[in-house]
Amino acid sequence: MSKIERVILASQSPRRVALLKQMGLDCLVMPADIDETAYVNELPADYVLRLAEQKALATLKKLNGQHADLPVLAADTTVALGMEILGKPDNDADAVNMLKKLSGNTHEVHTAVAVAFNGRLDKVLNTTLVQMMPLTDAMIAAYIATGEHRDKAGSYAIQGLAGNWIKRIEGSYTGVMGLPVHETAMLLDGICRIKKDYS
């Protein structure tokens, strides 16, 4: 049986590295540098699918034929409140505004995963509903002081202190963290079968 044991990760997210390790996969970290600006009226799901694909292709291009035996895996996560995309905060004030919007509401977390390998690119979308408790200004201020919100879509990390605020999720916990493990495993399994059939 052919088995993928290592991937090239087009991200510098330590959470994604840890989740890949949980899946039994080693990774070569090679983050992609792309413009992550959303298009006008772009749907949140379409936005993350596009960015995941662009990240995979940008890293593949950067490799210039090197490590051709390894799949390139990219992912992108965003928080959506209705049609509004809540990405990584620009600063602390931006994070405060995001958390106030999420307070007491149910939002969607979209994570797209793209894998480029052997001349093919496959991608998958995971969407999870997340219900957050009402937050006071003091709660938000204390959270911002920890710095945990930085570089996090929606300005929070479910696997950190903000996990105390999450009343309910419907979907994938690891998807909210930034890499839906089940979908990623299925995607890699499909890519692996392209190169070498299972016996």
Q: Describe it for me?
A:
By secondary structure, the protein is an alpha/beta fold. The chain has one domain (6-195): Maf protein. The protein has six helices and seven strands. It has helices spanning 14-22, 44-63, 92-102, 137-146, 173-177, 181-195; strands at residues 6-9, 26-29, 72-81, 84-86, 106-117, 120-132, 166-170. A hairpin with a 2-residue loop joins β5 and β6. It is elongated.
Please sum up the structure shown:
The chain has helices at 14-22, 44-63, 92-102, 137-146, 173-177, 181-195, and strands at 6-9, 26-29, 72-81, 84-86, 106-117, 120-132, 166-170.
Secondary structure topology:
Blueprint: E1 6-9, H1 14-22, E2 26-29, H2 44-63, E3 72-81, E4 84-86, H3 92-102, E5 106-117, E6 120-132, H4 137-146, E7 166-170, H5 173-177, H6 181-195
Helix pairs in contact: 3-4
Helical amount: 25-40%
State the major sheet. 7 strands, mixed
Judging by the overall fold, what is the CATH architecture?
Alpha-Beta Complex
Q: Give a count of the beta strands, DSSP E runs of length 2 or more.
A: 7
Structural category? alpha/beta
Shape assignment: elongated
Distance between the termini: 6 Å
| H-E string | EHEHEEHEEHEHH
Number of domains: 1
Measured on Cα atoms, how large is the radius of gyration? 17 Å
Total count of helical runs of at least 4 residues: 6
* Unreliable sequence segments: 194-199
CATH class: Alpha Beta
Q: Mean pLDDT, nearest integer? A: 93
CATH topology, by name, is Maf protein
Strand content: 25-35%
